[in-house]
Amino acid sequence: MTVQSYLFFDGRCEEAVGFYCDALGAQVQHLARYRESPEPLPPGMVPDGWGDKVMHVSLTIGDSVVMACDSSEARGFSGFSMSIGAQDEDEADRMFAALADGGKVTMPLARTFWSAKFGMLTDRFGVPWMVNVDH
Question: Which residues contact 84 (CB under 8 A, 6 or more apart)?
Answer without folding.
Answer: 24, 61, 62, 95, 129, 130, 131, 132
